[in-house]
Amino acid sequence: MNVQISERDLISMKLLHYFITKKNYSPIIVQGVENEIWIQNLDADKYKVIRIVNGYIHNDEQLEFDVFKTKRMVKKIRKKTFSLKMKTLNILTDVGENVDREKKFDDVDIIYYTDEDNLLKNEIIKSEFKDLKDNLTYTEEGFNLFFKITQDINMKNNKENMEAEKILEPKKPIVTFIIIGILVLMFFMQFIFTPIELLYYLGVQKDLVRYGEIYRLLTGAFLHLDILHLLCNLYALYVVGKLSESYFGKWKFTLIYLFSALTGSLLSISMGDNFSIGASGAIFGLLGSLLYFGYHYRVYFGNVLLKQIVPVIIFNLAIGFMIDDIDNFAHIGGLIGGLLISKAVGINSKDKKSDKINGIILSVIYLAFLIFLAFFMER
């Protein structure tokens, strides 16, 4: 079968194939548009949204309206994906001679396609997509080329969907249940020892920590004053912990939990009272990990992030500021620690090596800062 494909349709398919299979862009479903394709890569360094347009643009007024339409749609995408800034690349394949091709627009760059040679000479392509030249040549033609491109794009999309499903599918929260068991065990040990003895030997006390009993920074996060305190934290840990462990895996989850408990205790003795106990600092760290995970998967979790995770954090911090007995500094310290250490351990298939290195550096700096506040600053 010999299928005739126009030059504009052909270059659109080639570009779509390149951006999706080589540059990890994904299609965006945009309602009410014709002769254009929208794709996005929220992890791209410069152009997070690319738009390939085959519709005819015949003058400057139509070009300006097209850019206006682009910005209006990108604004909606930014809102949905929690992106502060989003640079867009428009590739226009059918433009009239009367259009001013030198005109510049804020946040929207434009490539005017005439032929493949000129496309490859474009400064944007040469700087941002240097390997495009090696990905525009195909041995297939006509229907075979169309079939290959379609098949490759579908395979790439299916692979990404399978990876996302693997990460998002519920997993048995083994470590979460172990931590819950330890918290319950530590509470009932108060019936073997007197509560005062247990809290005295293991609680987070500023003077004793500064004296050298560093272990208290972690052991205090496994103690609770009464049954209501314990039950509230057990419920929160069960809800938040099983999600965080499912998304990050057992070992990363364990590190996030312990690091958050440590940073929560450090900020507590730096800025708060002399004595602190409870798992809430570590639990806030797990909320931080969900915040970090949700941001990376905001295409899937946009509404959940906005309507559930963020309000829960804000609500609980607000309660902490209103009630004197709640150690909000432990919550804040754990929340920030959870965010940073989540960046350090990374999310499979999402975080680059450089992102993890940056996360490790930020986590070390944050920990060093808290140690300085706790041990070397008088309050």
Strand-residue proportion: 5-15%
Strand elements, count:
7
Number of domains: 2
Indicate the structural class: alpha/beta
Order of helices and strands: HEEEHEEHHHHHEHHHHEHHHH
Oligomer: single chain
- Outline: elongated
Distance between the termini: 82 Å
CATH topology of the largest domain: Rhomboid-like fold
- Can you give the helix content as a percent range? 55-70%
CATH architecture of the largest domain: Up-down Bundle
The CATH superfamily of the largest domain is Rhomboid-like
Largest sheet features:
5 strands, mixed
Number of helices: 15
Low-confidence stretches: none
What is the gyration radius calculated from CA atoms? 27 Å
Blueprint (SSEs and pairs):
Elements: H1 7-23, E1 26-28, E2 36-40, E3 47-53, H2 60-81, E4 87-92, E5 108-112, H3 116-121, H4 123-128, H5 142-168, H6 174-188, H7 195-202, E6 204-205, H8 206-211, H9 216-219, H10 227-248, H11 250-271, E7 275-276, H12 280-296, H13 298-322, H14 328-345, H15 353-376
Parallel strand pairs: 3-4, 4-5
Antiparallel strand pairs: 1-2, 2-3, 6-7
Helix pairs in contact: 1-5, 6-10, 10-11, 10-12, 11-12, 11-14, 11-15, 12-13, 12-14, 14-15
